[in-house]
Every structure is written in structure tokens, then in C-alpha cells.
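User: Just a sanity check before I run the rest of the batch. Below are the C-alpha cells for the first item. I only need the designed sequence back.
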């Protein structure tokens, strides 16, 4: 599952530099997550760093429009980082 930044975002700039996949960028009003780059930090960390550093609870949530299992997230990580881990 990719993550989604909700309208609760206060644009504090904490999440964007922490994303190891460069999936977070500024949108029109708030930060947004590129579903094609978000692996929920699979391949990097045990938990999504954006959620860990966000100062507002429940601002970064699972995106119900982009449901992926752990294997799919791992495969996305491998493709993004051009490794031979499959």
C-alpha cells in the first residue's frame, strides 16, 4: 500500500527529506506522495519514516486507492533501486 498525506498536513517539511525513495514532494497545497515510488519504507526501514517524523497524528495514512502487499512493495523497492535482490 502506498501512503497518503491527508489535509491535516501543516507543511512542516519534516517528511520530504526523510523519504528514502524520494516519493514525497510539495503539491498544490500540501505535500503529496507518489504512489509509484512509495514502498512504505520496505527495503529501508521497519516502519515508514514519514509517519514517524510527522508531528500531527493520523496525517499520513494508508492510501485505500493503492493497496499493495509486502511482496509488491519489495518488488517496487528493487525496481526503484536497481538491485538484484529478487
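Assistant: Here's the designed sequence for the first item:
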Amino acid at each position: 500500500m502506498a501512503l497518503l498525506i491527508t489535509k491535516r498536513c501543516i507543511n512542516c517539511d519534516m517528511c520530504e527529506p526523510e523519504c528514502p525513495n524520494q516519493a514525497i514532494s510539495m503539491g498544490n497545497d500540501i505535500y503529496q506522495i507518489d504512489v509509484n515510488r512509495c514502498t512504505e519504507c520496505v527495503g529501508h526501514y521497519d516502519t515508514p519514516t514519514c509517519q514517524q517524523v510527522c508531528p500531527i497524528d493520523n496525517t499520513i495514512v494508508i492510501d485505500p486507492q493503492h493497496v499493495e502487499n509486502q511482496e509488491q512493495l519489495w518488488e517496487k523497492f528493487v525496481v526503484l533501486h536497481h538491485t538484484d535482490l529478487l
